[in-house]
Amino acid sequence: MKQEDFKPNTIDEFISLYPEEVQAILQKIRQTILKVAPNAKEKISYGIPTFTLNGKNLVHFSAYKAHIGFYPGSEAISTFKNDLMSYATSKGTVRFPLDQPIPYDLISKITKHRTTTT
What's the whole-number mean pLDDT along residues 13-36? Predict the structure, then answer.
């Protein structure tokens, strides 16, 4: 089975598919989310790491060639639009370039906000 054909069932399996430096970033994002949402449940949904709270999606994240995709939903993107001005965003997505420091504090702030709106 080729690696691109492998469908991870857990966040650990998902993270293991990436180079070490990206694995470290993904693990830190995971820990950042769990720190502000300790009751969140982990799963793979839409093929990417997903955290749920009270049975609803809280946030998702993934890694790509040049960026980390963080998916807090459109309401959070709108609420934090001023904080996200230096990042590419779309309806429910923000892209954090891998060649820049990952804004873990912002991920924490957005996730904390989502815990009150989920």
Answer: 97
